[in-house]
Amino acid sequence: MSYPEIKLCIGGVWKTSTKRTPIINPSSGESAGELPHATTADLDAALDAAVAAEKTWSRTAPAERETIMLRAAAILKDRTEDIARAVVTDQGKTLFEARVEVSTAHDRIMWDAAEGRRLYGRIVPSRPGLRQMVTRHPFGVVAAFTPWNYPLASPTRKVAGALAAGCTIILKGAEETPSGAMALVQAFVDAGVPAGAVNLVFGTPSEISEHLIPKPDVRLVTFTGSVPVGKHLGALAGKHMKPAILELGGNSPVIVCEDASADHVAQASAIAKARNSGQVCVSPTRFFVHEAVYDPFVRAFGARASDIRVGPGDDPDSIMGPLANARRLEAIESYVADAISRGARVVTGGKRLDRPGNYYPLTVLADVAPDARAMTEEPFGPLALVTPYRDLDDAIARANNVDFALSAYAFTDSARNAAKLADDLECGALAINHFVSTVPEAPFGGTKDSGYGREGGTEGLEGYTYTKTVSHLT
Ligand code: NAD
Which first-to-last residue range defines the signal peptide (predicted)? Predict the structure, then answer.
């Protein structure tokens, strides 16, 4: 299968553009295709189409919306192989991971489609003769901006959430990894959403967001990406009085308690850290390990991590693909050099692979100083930082001592430890004894610099609605 021709989708019509820039395959550094840039007229046309479609889509029966969305999910699943191969080409992840991403997108659409039928309001008791009810209403047109790491699964949350709630949407997909967003929009268009309910644009991100967000017809902004861009877009949305859902970065702690099995946790950690080459906002990064199991854990983690084969995503022997772009490669090199200069010990990895493409091995650093930059910034790559602790309260305080609060992980069989961790760790999701921190049926998102708003679960859909209180004196 060859890489698809990337197009914009404006009001249900697929089109290209005279301005196009290259799309690079990170496994080889070679060009994979071309990205069409939307013009200002395209953006305005997409907005007009979304406004027009909202009039019918918001009034379509939830059960009918569900039927169309379930059809889109089925279409996506049927196209798994082609979609996955295109994602491998522009994003770099392994074919296995790309297939999982399609499956994740499918599951998210299924959940949101069904949950759209359950956007309940409520009756609020009042004095005799006065009936009070609270109803939920879609905000209207959503402007969505999604990143390159999960080019299909990330936009799915926004498109499926918005549509299930009765909103329409303009999606700016990731310019470096556009095939996933295009496949998603194609599935919805082919499933029969009204023309203009889902629009797809690409281009220079800042130009698109600065153009769309101030428009009065855009009623909600949703963004997944870095903290600086999230703060910028949140401020822009606030200036124009638009609510925003911001899913930003993380630097997830993993607390390994004294009762955990070093071997078991090390194996799970290597697999979790290798996922998407560590370019995941919930990637486990700072490992705080009780001193009683520290040495065996570091040894086992190093051994397991060095077993992770790195190579092109379409090579069946690869467990981890290249980094998605040269920026990440340079960033990881700089984080590793900085940590080593502050006394960190390289357990495994620590040096880019000498071959074309953005290859960096899974890297475990031990005895990492608290002031190493990677301990407080988001490395967003295959880098695990391990340090010992003696007292759980101290480990929790150190885990919380960053500006991020997205996901956290812990390993313990002690109910007392688990309760303390659940109470005291600052995060939007805590996974105890496993590494899955986001599922379609539960809310996901962060606090502090990791952003606000939730995706998934009941809360995810509610975020695309506002409440109206209707009181009726009889
Ligand atoms: P970046 O912040 O410039 O870009 C991240 C994403 O934001 C890109 O997809 C880009 O299209 C979009 N973007 C950038 N500026 C924008 C704007 N003005 N308006 C709208 N969209 C805009 O940086 P990057 O080099 O691509 O990634 C660097 C960092 O971003 C990573 O280190 C990581 O911390 C973070 N990141 C987080 C996630 C996540 O899932 N939370 C995803 C990707 C990147």
Answer: none
pLDDT in tens, 299-309: 999 999 999 99
What's the complex ipTM? 0.95
- CB burial class (10 A; 0-12, 13-18, 19+) of residue 395? buried
Cβ(149) – ligand 1 distance below 6 Å: yes
Which pTM was predicted?
Answer: 0.97
Other Cβ atoms within 10 Å of 130 Cβ, number: 12
Task: Examine the domain organization and report whether 115 and 261 are in the same domain.
Answer: no
Same domain, 231 and 281: no
Distance CA 374, CA 371 (A): 8
Q: Using CB atoms within 10 A of its CB, is residue 473 exposed (0-12), middle (13-18) or buried (19+)?
A: exposed
Nearest partner of 164 among 13, 242, 60, 78, judged by Cα? 60
Determine if ligand 1 sits within 6 Å of the CB of residue 206. Answer: yes
Strand (E) or helix (H) holding 157: helix 153-165
Residues 6+ apart with CB under 8 A from 188: 68, 69, 72, 159, 163, 197, 198
Give the position of tokens 């609020």.
124
CA distance 34 to 363: 33
Render pLDDT for 64-82 as a digit per residue (tens, 0 to 9).
999 999 999 999 999 999 9
* Higher per-residue confidence, 474 vs 364: 364
Number of domains the chain contains: 2
Three-class secondary structure of residue 448 per DSSP = strand
Helix axes 153-165, 95-115, angle to 10 degrees: 10
C-alpha 89 to ligand 1 mean position (Å): 20
List the domain range (segments joined by +) for residue 193. Answer: 8-248+448-473
Which distant-in-sequence residues (6+ apart) come within 8 Å of 175 by Cβ?
A: 21, 35, 148, 202, 203, 204, 205
Q: Which of 289, 310, 277 is nearest to 399 (CA)?
A: 289
Ligand 1 centre to CA of 205 (Å) is 9
Phi and psi based region of residue 159 (left: phi greater than 0; alpha: psi -120 to 50; beta: remaining): alpha
